[in-house]
Every structure is written in C-alpha cells, then in structure tokens.
Amino acid sequence: MNIAVIGADTRLGRRIAKDAFHRRHCVTAVVTDPSLLDSVRYTVVTGCEGFDPAGFDAVIDARSAELTITRGGVVSTLVPPAELDPDGRRLGQYTLGESTEGYIGEEDFALAAVDEAEGTEARRVTPVSGRAPALPEDGTGRRRYVALPDKGIAGKVYHLLMDDYNEYVAHFIADDRLLLAKQGEPFAAYACQCLHCDDQVWFVSFLRDRECVTLILDEAQSLVTAVYAFAAAKKPLLAQHRILFGAIKPFNGEVPFRRHGYTDEMAGTKITWHYSPYVNITHCYVNESYMRNSLAEMKPLPADAPAEAVFDAEDRVRRWGDIFFEEPAQYIRINPHLYVVVLGEANRNRMDPVQGGGDMVLAINTRRMRDYGRGFHTGFGTPYFGLISAGGSWYDMPDPMDIAQSPYLV
Prior knowledge:
Blueprint: E1 2-6, H1 11-21, E2 26-31, E3 43-46, E4 58-61, E5 67-71, E6 74-78, E7 83-85, E8 95-97, E9 103-105, H2 106-118, E10 124-128, E11 157-162, E12 167-174, E13 177-182, E14 188-198, E15 201-208, E16 211-218, E17 223-231, E18 239-248, E19 261-262, E20 269-276, E21 279-285, E22 290-294, H3 307-320, E23 326-335, E24 338-344, H4 346-351, E25 359-365, E26 370-377, E27 384-394
C-alpha cells in the first residue's frame, strides 16, 4: 500500500511509519521537522497543514494520541486507552473494544494503527493489551535479556515427515522432556528447552549425543524445519550445521506439500537487539547470504552504572571492538512476520580458533520485535547450548557496516 503518516516526526508517528515501512508498504512521512525522523527510507513531505491526501491508499494522522485513519473515504479512529505507556515492552498483540479503560504500550498502539490502515471497516475502537512480564534477573542483580523456557508444550505429539524420507514421532511428556522415536525404532528420552516464538510456533532445542537439534514446529501450517549442529570433524571447537525441511502429519487432512524456505526478505535491513540495559547490538542483514554485527548503537554507560555492567561492556568492546563480524548466514521464512537466521562463527574461528566457533539459530518475530534462539558451542570436548532472547527495534539509519568491504571475501 501507499501510506502517508501525518506527524511522522512525533514519537508515536515515528513508530507507526517504521512499522508500516517494514511491512513493505511505501511510506510518505508528512512532517514539520524532518530532522526528527529516525529513518532515511521514506518519501518526506514538509508541512502538515494543507497536505493533499489524494493518491494514497491510506492516510494515518498521528499528530495526537487519538489517531484518524482514512482509506478510500472510509474513516476510522483509534482512541488510546487510559494508560498509553511510551516505554511498554512490545507484545505484538492486543484486543479491540469500545471502553477506553485499560493499558497498552505505545509500540502495540502503533501496530494497531497499521493493522487498521490495512483493513476496510470504518469504526471507532480502543486497542488494549496486557502488560509484558518482567524480564529475568541474573545472579548479580543486573537485568539480562536471557530466555527462560516457555511452558505449554507438554502433552503435544507431533508426527514429523522429514524431506530426507525419515519419519519421527515427538512426544512432549513435560515442558522440558521429550520422547523421540525414528520410525521402526524405540523411543529415546531427551531433556529439552522450548520457546513459544509465535502464536502457533514452537522453538525446541535438545542435545542428542554430541549433536544439538533445533526444531521449528509450525502448528499453523503443519510444517517443521530442523537444524542439526555438530562439531567439525577436524576442528572440534568449530560448530557446523545442516538444515532439513519437513511437514507435520495432521491428525485429519492431507500432508502439506509446501515447505518453509530460504528467503531474501530480510536483506538490506537492520535490527538493534537489546541484550542488556547497557549492550545493544545491531544485526545487519546485509544480503541473503551473510550477517554482520555493528556496535554502533551501544548505549553509553550511565555514571551510576554498577561495576558488573561496566566490566561487562568493557569486556565486550575489548573482545569484539577490533573484529569485523561477518558470517555466512541462511535465512528461512516461516510466515510473513517470522524468520529464522542460522549462522556459524566460521570466520571468527579462523581468526581465533579458541574463542570463536559457535553456531546460532535465531527466530526473529517482527510483529513482537523479539528474537528467540539458541547458541551452541562444542567447548573443550563438551557440547552445550543456551537459550537467547532479546527485544529489538528496526534501525534504518546508515551504518558503516552497510557498505564496508568484507575482509574475508575475494
């Protein structure tokens, strides 16, 4: 769609424009002060008064918290609830009602505005959501955006038909316990950790001998993607992986023919992930084959930062500051707002065989703006994995990593 956002230089307007752009709409930012925009990807029109909406599929007026959305002569109004939280963590979901009582984070309110612009019904409604749960603390008291396993997969049974012609039955007897059997073989039990990365998509990881298996179980489309990570044969500290697609056999109905697949839809975008209050790392999805990291968006430490945070930040800069982080990556599309990125630290291992060599799988939910993943390391003879999660935000300003020449490629 061709969408105009009037007041795209306001805090709420910036969030609406960014959300609309990253849903692949063409965005025209109608602003009073173009210097307040945080993206270079819009068509910019200066002067909100007298703006001509002709030729746009939808126009969102974000000059006040009560939003007016016009499309094809149909006008809708989004009324904010009693508590519109500018700092609320994005959930990627909300409910609509007529009462203005309730709560919603500003990010989810912006999400509702773009949803409404994509619709056709004229109405006056108030979106409300729950509050995001508190993030876990680590042993030092610092807030760390690590992932705690989600609950709710216990009791589920999946019949997996993989494209290498092997069949499996996966039975989750508990939220952290899996029974898995290959066709014709007995069940084996595994300790697992699970993340609920979308409404009907589970991210499951477990160790099988010296191999880490990650399953993306897509109940909505009855599909599965598996990533198998293992130690390289001649370099035990370097993890490698292979990817296999498949289907989940429905209890009723036909086995789906289509599969999750490789994509270039993330190419040319960047997301800044907030791994702690003091560490933001921008992932640059430079093209469909590589990913880079940029430390350009690391927050400066406040004067009253705890000593542990200062050490953590300084140690990160010391270990990563001189490294050009670029690694081969594979991008898989699960659904229109969920992507999986698989990468291994092959280049870093070549530079430092002791420090580098891990393998990562990240499920990026662009509606929730969260990533869910696991990092796998072979260690010094002991394979292990840990869950990862962080909140993020699109980063649409230029970065040196966008056009820097790779030191690893001819």
